[in-house]
Amino acid sequence: MKQILIDRYGPPEEVARYVDVPDVGAPGADEVVFDVLMFPINPADISFCRGTYRLKPALPATPGAECIGRVTAVGARVAHVTPGDLVINLQRENWAQQRRVKGTDVIPVPPGMDLQQAAMLRINPATALLLLTTIVPLKPGDWLIQNVANSAVGRLVIPLARARGIRTMNVVRRASLFGDLKALGADACVVDSAELADAVTTQTAGAPIRLGLDAVSGRATGRIAACVADDGVVCNYGAMSGEDPVMSRSALSARGVTLVGFTLTRPLSTYPLEKVRAIYTDLAHQVMDGTLSAPVEQVYAIEEIKDALAHAQRAERTGKILVAPHEAV
């Protein structure tokens, strides 16, 4: 089978290569084998290849935080999935044609789910949901502000918030994105700038903003902090700038703004398995009924991984880059 490996850290399109490796073999009693039908290239995967991600396994290593697969074999003690089922995998190393994992690591999704959307189900929809529901107890009518609102997570936060009556102030780098975000249900949009706080106050008529979501870090964190109300919370969940978050001392001490961090694995690891499965089942149904979706720009073959990685790093893309490891899906 084919698998993607990196032997060193560096520019992803230079360090990633596909190789032929032995098949994964038959499952053990508590294991599942599945064919990987499709996987996305996420910012975390790019960072993984560069060596800037929080996880740095021994090399050579296989990237891949998520995928959608079809079960081909199950062990004798696995009962919640059967051959033919579509599954997402809670473990990494998914840039391959086939995986063998513990049965508890795979979660079934509805059989009619679109494969492209299913490939992107594990990380971004769950991240958007938990950012919205676990950081601050928001209620209908409350405001939140988020930067990079046109990102995959940002575009999912908007409809999830709207369904709960929560208003979203959406910060982007160019006004041409406003129309797309308003179509998703955004209440207000603004271009990021040094005067962000004044622009936000004008659009919200001074309404307090209880939660700020920051995926940029660096000084962008401080700009979001300047927009939230006194005693509000800024949650940093990404670092597109490549920098650590920066906030003013006055925001922290005089205004009582709290800065917290978020990574999806932390809350999920505290939930019982049945709750995790229920979260993904609900999210899958919201994808299938059209409530949630993520745009896709192009799908590549696994042999084109270098081209796919280069494409995934282009500015102003209109959607995710996916890879289909098999010729026919």
Summary tags:
Rossmann fold, 6-stranded parallel β-sheet, 329 residues, Quinone Oxidoreductase, Chain A, domain 1, alpha/beta, 7-stranded mixed β-sheet
Number of domains: 2
CATH superfamily label of the largest domain: Medium-chain alcohol dehydrogenases, catalytic domain
CATH classification, class level of the largest domain: Alpha Beta
Oligomer: single chain
User: Which sequence of SSEs, written as H and E, runs from N to C?
Assistant: EHEEHEEEEHHEHEHEHEHEHEHHEHE
Bin the helical content: 25-40%
- Structural class, please? alpha/beta
Total beta-strand segments = 15
Number of helices: 12
Radius of gyration: 20 Å
Report the span from N to C terminus: 16 Å
Q: In CATH terms, what is the fold-level topology of the largest domain?
A: Quinone Oxidoreductase, Chain A, domain 1
At CATH level 2, the architecture of the largest domain is Alpha-Beta Complex
- Percent strand equals 15-25%
Which spans of ≥5 residues are poorly predicted at pLDDT below 50? Answer: none
Instruction: Give the mean pLDDT.
Output: 96
For the largest beta-sheet, the strand count, sense and barrel status come to:
7 strands, mixed
How does the overall form come out from the CA principal axes? Answer: globular
